[in-house]
Amino acid sequence: MALSLVVRTCRFSFCRFAPSKALTSYRSYGNNTPARDAHRKSVYKTEEAKRIRFYILNRFIEYLKNYDKILEKNFPTTIKTYRTFTDGIKTFSLETIEYFKIVMMLNSSGGSYAKLLRREIELYHQMPKDMMKVAPVIIFSALPFAFYVLLPLVYTLPKQLLTAHFWTPDQQNKFQIEYFRDRLVHNKPVFRHLQSQLNYIKHYGKNKTQFEKWANILGLLGSGIQPTAEDILACKDLFMDEPYHLLYLSRNHVFHLLRVHNLHAGWFRRTRLADRAQVLIEMDKAILREGGVHNLPLNALSKACYIRGLNPTDISSDYQVKWLTQWIKVSSQVDKDNLSLLLHCPILLGYNEPSNWVLVYPKK
């Protein structure tokens, strides 16, 4: 009986652990027959599967191509701001490179303003101020993740932190008018300083005839009429000596004259005013070299008037040409001895202009 129990136990163990023929044959069939390969081919190699994969891939590529449009649709203000900033960076970088090329040319042997175009002289005049203003923003935006923090901040205060390169067209028009209004409010103090010296010219002036002509010019300005270029040039000798030469102007007179020309009131005031007058003369010469005022494009014509003290908004191009022609008549007769005359031309030629007056005294 014990022997019978041992035999049954061995049979049970053998049946439990020995592989069956059916399992062996199934595995053998799975490894050796082409049916499994055919199944795999049907999943991965058929034309239908290829078309599905290509369709998914093409849809993904199209999605990536249109991703900026999707963002613009969902976040229009953010995307517009980002594009304005990146375009501004490109424009600012190109103009900075051009500015340093101009500086190198002017400092080289034989370099002079006569070799520059009008646009290049305007760039040379404006870029130092723009670089000083926007340099902190450019530097901080290059830091890791700082761009995403800085961008909302700078576009909260675009007038204070950015230059025209980074403004939208609407902002450019708005801020230009605001900056120009800030300049125009200094016209009246400069005019009062000119008037205050009339008594000195009467008693100590070398030419009584010039006194009468100058008194007439100040009278015209005070009564709302602009004198002509010929009237102004008849009194240019008054700006070659006391009381209107740069060296003889009072401190307050110099301060307001700086602000009229959008210059800061810091160091080397009279030197910077003289440099400003020289640059204006060179701009005018470049205009004449390029065919005269009548050949200026409309944007360049408006910018030229803006630089010299005339608000070009809502006035015709013909009037801008007429006004700028008067300016250049005076400018062409100015030299290093009477630079002060040209610096006062924004008042002498623009004090009573209606487009300027409406900015200083807007209708309520």
TrEMBL record:
Alphabetical list of InterPro entries matching this protein: LETM1-like_RBD, LETM1/MDM38-like
Transmembrane helix among keywords: yes
Any one annotated GO CC term: mitochondrial inner membrane
GO molecular-function terms, A-Z: ribosome binding
One Gene Ontology biological process: intracellular monoatomic cation homeostasis
Domain Letm1 RBD stretches: 178-364
Transmembrane portions of the chain: 134-155
Membrane topology per record: Single-pass membrane protein
Compartmental location: Mitochondrion inner membrane
Keywords: Membrane, Mitochondrion, Mitochondrion inner membrane, Transmembrane, Transmembrane helix
Protein name: Letm1 RBD domain-containing protein
Annotated organism of origin: Dendroctonus ponderosae (Mountain pine beetle)
Gene name tied to this protein: 109543369
